[in-house]
């Protein structure tokens, strides 16, 4: 077999016609295979769990034309596929260990596209410390569909659940909120009043999210409940509140936004709607007792993550968004439906 990273990432070194399934596996995916995967030359991988740890399993699929656009860079598509799964592991306090990948390529997918897809995975494997353990490779009847199962581990009994938050707990969020949803609007040409650099920033955040994987590894000692923000801040807050049987008060002013998102809402305050209820952020929303504030801040510093306190949990089973003067904001126009 061939198969250094160089071969994988150099589009000039691969043929233009699409070779068979076994050649794709051997040339593009075997170089990504980790310990226990037998270089993808056996039927299955062997995974040895660390004593005292439990496995955390999650799966997400993305489809051409639905979760990414046919013209998107293939390396970005692969990285988004991996990252939307790493975000679920991070929100559960887990450390990513490996993943299984299923590729259903459309008839029109070129070998260059596949090679660039594999190169995107290679880059993220290095960044996040995960390895490929196996998968499946088939031809799709229609557009391409990719599915990835991520495997993480966490100390036994320590996975962070959606339930477990208490009234009085602080509500925190990592990173910035809104970039993913506004990035999709920017990619569709709906934010042309923004500068080119702001638009590029937002589109890139939509294509390649930045889940807080290092911070996630430390979450189990800090959070009483957590989930990743994939469906929108208010909707996901609703999931946490329902599971924990609490309500929440959040301050709109304290929701952390990037400078590009800020530039957007300064011009168009109606763009708060996709920030509050759009999706694709892949940050962590978590609850934690007030006594954990210092530990959370120092963990954020040591892991290079930004964290922001956006509100608190309440006994009343409802969600209120407050403006700077403490008045409730009408969120019905955001498309947010009350749980
Ligand atoms: P089988 O037909 O016996 O299920 P396959 O030919 O599908 O086996 O796969 C052979 C090996 O290659 C297996 O170890 C499988 O996990 C791996 N594999 C196949 N496709 C992929 C892929 N897209 N990514 C990673 N590993 C893959
Ligand atoms: Mg087999």
Mean pLDDT: 93
Write the H/E string, N to C. HHEHEHEEEHHHEHEHHEHEE
Overall geometric form: globular
Q: Report Rg.
A: 21 Å
Structural class: alpha+beta
Q: Which ligands accompany this protein? A: adenosine-5'-diphosphate, magnesium ion
- Unreliable stretches (pLDDT < 50, length at least 5) are 1-9
Based on the model shown, name its key terms.
339 residues; alpha+beta; six-stranded mixed β-sheet; four-stranded mixed β-sheet; globular; disordered N terminus; binds adenosine-5'-diphosphate; binds magnesium ion
What would you say this structure looks like, in words?
This protein has a 6-stranded mixed beta sheet, with helices on both faces. It has helices spanning 5-9, 21-29, 74-91, 111-128, 179-187, 196-207, 213-217, 233-244, 259-267, 272-277, 293-302, and strands at 53-63, 95-105, 131-139, 145-155, 170-174, 225-229, 247-251, 283-288, 307-314, 319-322. With 339 residues, it is an alpha+beta fold. Mean pLDDT is 93; it is low at 1-9. Helix 4 (111-128) links the parallel strand 2 and strand 3 (131-139). It has 11 helices and 10 strands. 33% of the residues lie in helices and 22% in strands. Bound molecules: adenosine-5'-diphosphate and magnesium ion (MG).
């Amino acid at each position: 077999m061939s198969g250094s990273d160089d071969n994988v990432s150099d589009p000039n070194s691969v043929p233009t016609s699409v070779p068979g399934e076994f050649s794709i596996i051997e040339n593009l995916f075997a170089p990504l295979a980790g310990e226990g995967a037998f270089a993808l030359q056996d039927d299955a991988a062997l995974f040895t769990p660390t004593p005292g740890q439990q496995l955390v399993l999650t799966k997400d699929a993305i489809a051409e034309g639905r979760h990414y656009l046919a013209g998107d860079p293939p390396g970005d598509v692969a990285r988004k596929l991996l990252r939307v799964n790493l975000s679920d592991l991070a929100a559960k306090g887990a450390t990513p260990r490996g993943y299984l990948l299923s590729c259903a390529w459309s008839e029109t997918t070129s070998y260059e596209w596949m090679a660039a897809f594999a190169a995107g995975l290679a880059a993220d494997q290095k960044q996040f410390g995960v390895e490929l353990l196996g998968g499946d490779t088939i031809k799709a009847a229609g557009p391409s569909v990719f599915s990835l199962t991520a495997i993480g581990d966490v100390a036994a009994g320590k996975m962070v659940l959606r339930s477990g938050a208490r009234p009085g707990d602080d509500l925190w969020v990592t990173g910035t909120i809104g970039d993913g949803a506004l990035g999709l609007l920017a990619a569709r040409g709906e934010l042309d009043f923004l500068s080119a650099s702001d638009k590029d920033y937002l589109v890139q955040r939509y294509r390649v999210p930045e889940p807080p994987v290092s911070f996630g590894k430390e979450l189990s000692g800090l959070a009483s409940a957590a989930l990743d923000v994939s469906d929108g801040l208010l909707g996901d807050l609703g999931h946490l509140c329902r599971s924990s049987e609490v309500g929440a008060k959040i301050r709109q002013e304290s929701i952390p936004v990037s400078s590009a998102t800020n530039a957007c809402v300064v011009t168009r305050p109606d763009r708060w709607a996709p920030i509050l209820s759009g999706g694709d952020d892949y940050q962590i929303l978590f609850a934690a007792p007030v006594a954990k504030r210092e530990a959370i801040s120092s963990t954020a510093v040591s892991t290079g993550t930004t964290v922001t306190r956006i509100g608190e949990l309440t006994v009343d089973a409802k969600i209120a968004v407050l403006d700077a003067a403490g008045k409730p904001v009408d969120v019905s126009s955001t498309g947010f439906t009350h749980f």
